[in-house]
Amino acid sequence: LAKTTQPISMDSYEGQEVNITCSHNNIATNDYITWYQQFPSQGPRFIIQGYKTKVTNEVASLFIPADRKSSTLSLPRVSLSDTAVYYCLVGDGAAGNKLTFGGGTRVLVKP
Amino acid sequence: GAVVSQHPSWVICKSGTSVKIECRSLDFQATTMFWYRQFPKQSLMLMATSNEGSKATYEQGVEKDKFLINHASLTLSTLTVTSAHPEDSSFYICSADRTSGRGGTQYFGPGTRLTVL
Questions:
Q1: Which of A87, A92, A95 sits opposite B97 (nearest CB)?
Q2: How far is Cα A31 from Cα B103, in angstroms, rounded to an integer?
Q3: Fewer beta carbons within 10 Å, N or C terminal of chain A?
Q4: Contact A99 B106 (CB under 8 A)
Q5: A87, A83, A77, A74: which is closest to A107 by C-alpha?
Q6: For residue range B23-59, what is the model confidence (pLDDT) as tens digits?
């Protein structure tokens, strides 16, 4: 399983864009990159998944360079409710493929 | 879509008793489900992989006789904590693997808070 490295924490202010970069130097050819958000005492919530280049949905964008050794989750115009822990995971996406959670990034959005 | 539920959301039990936690995929079928444990201020730790119709696969250090897993249907997996002790108090989270044309994604339940007195 490819290991991921993320910053432990980040502070931001309401209305700003938050970018969290994750390193996954040993990513395999078949691996997808998935980001989850977790609030205290709740299960992780799927945010976005990608394989290469850029993926965008209604809540975030995911940027993946050509070498795929890192990825950046971009949260546009954050609000206080975006304060959470964000996890970057790498896995081949095959049915039954298990994921290994790293420490995640604790994002604090201030007013 | 991709909703996973857990029941109960919290449970308090006495030491030595057994507790069963249910995990259901409500709007999709999941051949594989996963069980995680999370202690305060820590990340999720995978306990076991639950496969429908077959035995679960446990991670190293997880006692299979203490944490019984049953995956009897494509929408239900159960985790039973047998002879629970205070050190088993934790937040237990399940996930269900939903496979699409391009690969699988795990969707997580809301978690179950277990407190053993």
A1: A95
A2: 9
A3: C
A4: yes
A5: A83
A6: 999 999 988 899 999 999 899 999 999 988 888 999 9
**pLDDT, tens digit (0-9, with 9 covering 90-100), for B75-112:** 999 999 999 999 999 999 999 988 765 556 889 999 99
Q: Does B93 reach chain A within 8 Å, measured CB to CB? A: yes
Q: Three-class SS of residue B12?
A: strand
Q: Do B104 and A93 touch (CB under 8 A)?
A: yes
State how beta strands B112-116 and B10-13 pair.
Answer: parallel
Closest of B21, B8, B11, B42 to residue B116, by C-alpha: B11
CB contact under 8 A, A92 and B103: yes
Strands A9-13 and A70-75: unpaired
Residues of A in contact with B94 (CB under 8 A): 43
Nearest to B74 by CA among B29, B26, B104, B33: B29
The rounded distance, in Å, linking the Cα atoms of A94 and A81 is 32
| Cα–Cα nearest to A106, from A5, A2, A6 | A6
- Decide if B105 and A96 are in contact by the 8 Å CB cutoff: no
Structure tokens of A104?
Answer: 């995640």
Task: Check: CB of residue B37 under 8 Å from CB of residue A86.
Answer: no
> Measuring CA to CA, which residue among B11, B33, B18, B23 is closest to residue B91?
B11
